[in-house]
Specification:
Helix content: over 70%
Pfam family, one: TPR_16
InterPro entries: CellSynth/LPSAsmb/PSIAsmb, PEP-CTERM_TPR_PrsT, TPR-like_helical_dom_sf, TPR_2, TPR_rpt
Protein name: PEP-CTERM system TPR-repeat protein PrsT
Radius of gyration: 44 Å
Distance between the termini: 106 Å
Structural class: mainly alpha
Shape: flat
Strand content: under 5%
Keywords: Repeat, TPR repeat
Organism: Congregibacter brevis
């Protein structure tokens, strides 16, 4: 706009005189009548600025709010208007607002108090009163009030009558006729159009519902509930474009409104965008956790995304609040089947059948759950009930016949399948199940006849050629089978099953190269096909072409990034190749995406154990247990993880559970014994050893454990018997040191020393034995002999912290310089060790470096939390440093305190001060 225009506008504004209250109100009334609520609101506000207590303006403001479906604000305006001036029209409008706001009780209370006496004979008020009574479930009073609303052509009264026809008389046809009469008089009546849309939706006529709702919105765009219902109807008829547009508008008007988020989620769900739908439903549930529609569809979306734990939680929550919703309840049952929990699915299906004994969907879930639990005869009974309820259903006959076969009633099963095939010659499922049944019975001739008939009837279907090929393969007609598989390939080039059949023929001929070529050809047509890739990988492994096998599996992963099989195959090889980091690289993404394949978590747990990372293995073990809590192999892996994390009690529980299924599994029982020993449950461990087979009890490892257990219990003589037997059967450094320890405990130190020395004459590089021999010499006070052994040990392992520490201790007085060299090296290798720091301090003491000795001792005390032995060493340093008073105070504390190894020496030192 130019500056001239601004001036003109300003001049006009300055010259005009204020509009009077009466003119403003008159204009507002006209605007309301024409539906221009914004203009009406502007004039009413201006009038109220001139006179805030203008009763007519307040009443008009209430009408505007009522039209905007804001009954709370309307009530406030009507009540303020009535305080200034009583008006029958305003009183009637207030009554309507109270009902619209759901405050029927307040209206009825005011009516009983006599506030509406002037309206008692007004038909429209009686209609309002009828609605209020209906809202309070006072039905006889509601009907009586409606009888007082005798008037023709009043829209409000007629809409009320339509509501009664539906809610009390269950007569939607009568309601529709009443509403149509209103719309004949006034096609833009928003209430009538909205109600008519509701009735159309009841009869699944969503096309008509859309038209009625659009008319209601055109009449009053403020009716947000109608706009929401319009989007719902548009979604139902598949008009996603219009629904999306409507949702965008609603989201601007009422952001973060649960119903809008729900509809947006429903639209995305219908479009197959389940992740986007989940996000919308989550927003709705954040605002309103009890929004049942969002809860149910979110569960379904999570099911499709494989988020079974979240879906289970949401379905459980929904069903707990809607126990009569059989569909959702059975969905929960089906979910339990997916999770491998058929007993829970069985219980759910039985619960539904208690309320509806003829529910076929519930029977289907029950039959599947029973079959999964191996209760095949019970499953047959359920399928028989389904077949009886649906005598014309081919699918029911096929399901019954198939289950009868599994249950062992092959004669009845075959009869059902034959009847199904005869009943519907076009049912390929019935034909295929019948052929499978005949093959399983060894009726190859009949199976061949049925397969040939199948092929003749469905000449353009590659599956008919495949079935014929499989049967011909069974009857050893190799040429015929090859011809059939090639026919399938002609009908469907690259057909994976046909390629598999040709490859199987090659394998039968010991032609692995031929099988490889067939699978390669299939892959050239079906690049990255998972089944073909896995089959080719097996052939390549048998051919010894490991590099090409890994290449095929890698390509399968590139083409199928979420596929489990190729990753698991490569991970298993990596574990065998002792490359645990590769296992983690291959499987971590699957685990993070919520895979439900127990193999993924088993391999990850084993990989982290192999890498010495038991803490990282723990979460995978927990997930593994969630997925397959009853599998002995799973329990064994979890037990190993618990043992590695220092939880032998938990490992014991898992191993005991595994042994229930596999009571004769020696490896599991050995692990249980290990877990018991770690908990010092020695008596129970001995009982478990005694339950092992006799030949296993003589296994050196078992004898070694048994001997150690006897030693723990103080029976060193019996310990020596078992450990000696272990050493005799399996002479090694491990069995020898255990045997020598038992002898030592019996007081046979000489025999133990001799045996260790004799072993080292033949096995001079056995560091385990030499280390024990050095320790025994040190224990006997034979320092020179110990020193000799430790010097040999340090030559073999220059970085052994224990050896370096002991050498430094032994040499601290005679060869302080060398001792310092050794202990400095040990301190560098183990800078946090208080024992190393303590030895270092005593070596520095011998070196005459008192300040250095005190500093190192202080670090040792800090790390060892005030060890009395290290404190005694500090007292010795203080004495040598000339700080006898401090030394005496420290020694008095040590002598008066709890017993420790050097307490007598501490008292002797104190006596000298």
């Amino acid at each position: 706009m130019s500056s001239i225009s601004f001036a003109a506008v300003f001049a006009l504004s300055a010259c005009s005189s204020p509009v009077s209250e009466a003119e403003l109100i008159a204009r507002a009334e006209e605007a309301i009548a024409s539906g221009d609520l914004n203009a009406a609101e502007l004039d009413v506000k201006t009038a109220l600025q001139q006179n805030p207590e203008n009763a007519v303006a307040r009443s008009l403001y209430g009408e505007i709010y009522l039209s905007q479906v804001n009954p709370g604000a309307a009530i406030a305006e009507f009540e303020r208007s009535l305080k200034s001036s009583e008006s029958s029209e305003t009183r009637l409008a207030l009554a309507k607002a109270l009902v619209q706001a759901g405050q029927s009780a307040e209206l009825l209370s005011d009516f009983d108090a006599g506030l509406y006496v002037s309206l008692a004979s007004v038909p429209e008020f009686n209609a309002v009163l009828a609605r209020a009574y209906l809202g309070q479930q006072q039905l006889s009073e509601a009907r009586r009030a409606l009888m007082g609303a005798k008037v023709e052509g009043n829209d409000y009264v007629d809409v009320t009558k339509a509501a009664f026809a539906v809610q009390l008389d269950d007569n939607p046809a009568e309601a529709a006729a009443i509403l149509d009469g209103i719309l004949d008089r006034n096609a833009s009546n928003a209430d009538a159009n909205s109600f008519r849309a509701y009735l159309a939706a009841l009869s699944d006529d969503y096309e008509a519902a859309v038209q009625y709702l659009q008319a209601a919105i055109d009449a009053n765009a403020y009716r947000l509930p109608d706009r929401i219902q319009l989007v719902k109807a548009q979604i139902r008829i598949g008009d996603s474009s219009a629904a999306s547009k409507g949702l965008t508008q609603l989201d601007k008007l009422i952001p973060e409104y649960p119903e809008v988020n729900f509809l947006q989620g429903q639209l995305l769900f219908d479009q197959g965008n389940y992740q986007g739908a989940i996000e919308e439903f989550s927003q709705a549930l954040t605002v309103n956790p009890n929004h049942m529609g969002s809860l149910l569809l979110a569960a379904n979306a999570n099911l499709r995304e494989g988020n079974l734990a979240t879906a289970e939680r949401q379905l459980t929550q929904f069903v707990s609040r809607n126990p009569d919703n059989a569909t959702a309840t059975l969905q929960l049952g089906s979910l339990y089947m997916q999770k491998g929990e058929p007993k829970k699915a069985e219980d759910i299906a039985k619960g539904v059948l208690q309320n509806n004994a003829d529910s076929v969907p519930a029977m289907a879930v029950l039959a599947t759950a029973l079959a999964t639990q191996g209760r095949n005869s019970e499953s047959v009974d359920v399928y028989a009930r389904i077949a009886a309820l649906q005598p014309d259903s081919v699918e029911a006959k096929v399901a019954l016949g198939s289950q009868q076969f599994v249950a062992g009633d092959t004669e009845s099963g075959l009869q059902q399948l034959q009847e199904a095939a005869e009943q519907d010659p076009e049912s390929t499922v019935a034909k295929e199940r019948l052929i499978d049944a005949l093959l399983s019975l060894g009726e190859t001739g009949k199976a061949l006849s049925e397969a040939q008939s199948y092929r003749a009837s469905f000449t353009d279907d590659p599956r008919s050629a495949l079935y014929l090929g499989r049967v011909l393969l069974q009857v050893r007609d190799v040429d015929g089978a090859r011809l059939a598989f090639n026919e399938a390939l002609k009908l469907e080039p690259g057909n994976v099953s046909a390629s598999g059949g040709l490859a199987a023929l090659a394998v039968l001929d010991d032609d692995l190269d031929g099988a490889r070529d067939v699978f390669k050809t299939a892959l050239s047509v079906n690049e990255g096909d998972l089944g073909t890739s896995m089959n080719l990988a097996v052939i390549l492994e048998q051919l010894g072409d490991v590099e090409q096998m890994e290449g095929v599996l890698g390509q399968a992963i590139d083409t199928n990034p979420d596929a489990v099989e190729p990753r698991v195959a490569l991970a298993r090889k990596a574990l065998v190749d002792e490359d645990p980091s590769r296992v983690v690289e291959l499987l971590s993404e699957l685990a993070n995406q919520g895979s439900r394949d127990s193999r993924v978590f088993g391999l990850l747990a084993n990989a982290h154990l192999a890498a010495g990372e038991p803490e990282s293995a723990a979460p995978h073990a927990r997930r593994l247990l969630e997925l397959a809590s009853t599998e002995p192999e799973v329990l064994e892996i979890v037990a190993r993880v618990e043992l590695a994390n220092g939880h032998p009690d938990k490992a014991q529980r898992h191993l005991e559970s595994a042994l229930v299924s596999l009571p004769d599994d020696v490896a599991l029982r050995k692990q249980l014994i290990d877990a018991l020993v770690r908990q010092e449950k020695f008596s129970r461990a001995l009982d478990e050893i005694a339950s092992l087979p006799t030949d296993v009890q003589d296994d050196p490892a078992v004898l070694n454990v048994r001997g150690r257990l006897m030693g723990y219990s103080g029976d060193f003589r019996q310990a020596a018997v078992y450990l000696g037997r272990a050493f005799e059967l399996y002479p090694s450094g491990v069995t020898l040191t255990s045997f020598a320890s038992a002898k030592w405990a019996m007081g046979l130190q000489g025999e133990a020393i001799a045996q260790l020395s004799e072993w080292l004459e033949d096995q001079p590089d056995d560091m385990l034995v030499r280390n024990q021999l050095a320790s025994r010499y040190l224990e006997l006070g034979e320092n020179d002999a110990a020193l000799t052994q430790y010097k040999l040990l340090v030559d073999q392992d220059p970085d052994s912290v224990v050896v370096l520490n002991n050498l430094a201790w032994l040499m601290r007085s005679e060869d302080t310089a060398t001792a310092l060299e050794y202990i400095a090296r040990a301190d560098k290798l183990a800078p946090q060790s208080p024992q190393i720091k303590d030895t270092y301090a005593m070596v520095e003491l011998e070196n005459g470096n008192m300040d250095r000795a005190l500093a190192l001792n202080a670090k040792a005390l800090e790390a060892a939390q005030g060890s009395p032995d290290i404190r005694y060493n500090r007292a010795q340093i203080l004495v040598r440093a000339g700080q006898k008073d401090k030394a005496a105070d420290l020694l008095r504390e040590l002598v008066a305190g709890p017993a420790f190894a050097s307490q007598a020496d501490a008292k002797a030192l104190l006596d000298t001060l």
